[in-house]
């Protein structure tokens, strides 16, 4: 019989540390219904938490040591909280660095992190575009919050986890992945304004099923063109003298195209931010039907 992830984490914790865990924490992966590459352009996104997740069985310690066993990597690592008060000299991308980086970011936020033991396991495919890294970061953040009795503010914890990925791991991701993992709810998509971090949980139509197809392609944001695309978008915003591409109008883009400027700068703003906001619906009435229409050609080209 196949054990659930909760049972796997509990058993691994007991095997590794000789005692049962105090509690289990969980953070989910995600799919994005619409709004690609718009989060770091201060735009709108409409992601959805999925049933794939990262679980950590945790137990408190009396010191500031964090010991964690990864079932997926079959490794156990440990570090003292005080050892991660400074950034590494270069981006660090081993699995344990998502733990170290999240702890570092919580400390940067002025939060007190105490020691704990943990056993981590997940079923979010790594490198498949379902935000396994954000799920790991938010699971670690929730572990620290649970053990240290820290207040859980979804936006604050999402920003802390994003900072870990930006500064410790070296991926200049936006806020979407971390925010949906921190604030998602079953049966609802999350309409997120990535500038203000205002959110609206949008109900899905009854009997909706989201099907995820695995192409088998794997990639990591660290070694993909993700950072390059973000740099191009920032260059385009600077070209138009705006804070972010969210502030570029269609009239401005059309004028730039007529002058035949570099398409790597003018191409990105052609994705319409209004579509994401529209798909979320302007009010609660009829929003389920609006979300349902996403299935018909909603993805950005």
**How many helices does DSSP assign?**
10
Mean pLDDT: 85
Q: In angstroms, what separates the terminal alpha carbons? A: 43 Å
Low-confidence stretches: 294-301
Radius of gyration (CA) equals: 20 Å
Which class best fits the helix and strand makeup? alpha+beta
Succession of helices and strands: HEEEEEHEHHHEEHHHHH
**How are strands sequenced across the largest beta sheet?**
1-3-6-4-5
Shape: globular
Number of domains: 2
Approximate helicity band: 25-40%
What does the main sheet amount to? 5 strands, mixed
CATH class of the largest domain: Alpha Beta
Which fold does the CATH topology of the largest domain refer to? Ribosomal Protein S5, domain 2
How much of the residues is beta strand, in percent?
Answer: 15-25%
Using brief descriptors, characterize the structure shown:
alpha+beta; 8 strands; 301 residues; Ribosomal Protein S5, domain 2; disordered C terminus; 2 domains; three-stranded antiparallel β-sheet; single chain
Explain what you see:
The protein has ten helices and eight strands. It has helices at residues 5-17, 95-108, 132-148, 154-169, 176-183, 226-239, 250-258, 263-266, 273-280, 287-292; strands at residues 23-32, 44-45, 47-60, 65-70, 75-80, 116-122, 188-193, 199-203. The chain has a five-stranded mixed sheet with strand order 1-3-6-4-5. It is globular. 40% of the residues are buried. Mean pLDDT is 85; it is low at 294-301.
List the helices and strands and how they pair.
Blueprint: H1 5-17, E1 23-32, E2 44-45, E3 47-60, E4 65-70, E5 75-80, H2 95-108, E6 116-122, H3 132-148, H4 154-169, H5 176-183, E7 188-193, E8 199-203, H6 226-239, H7 250-258, H8 263-266, H9 273-280, H10 287-292
Parallel strand pairs: 4-6
Antiparallel strand pairs: 1-3, 2-7, 3-6, 4-5, 7-8
Helix pairs in contact: 2-3, 2-4, 3-4, 3-5, 4-5
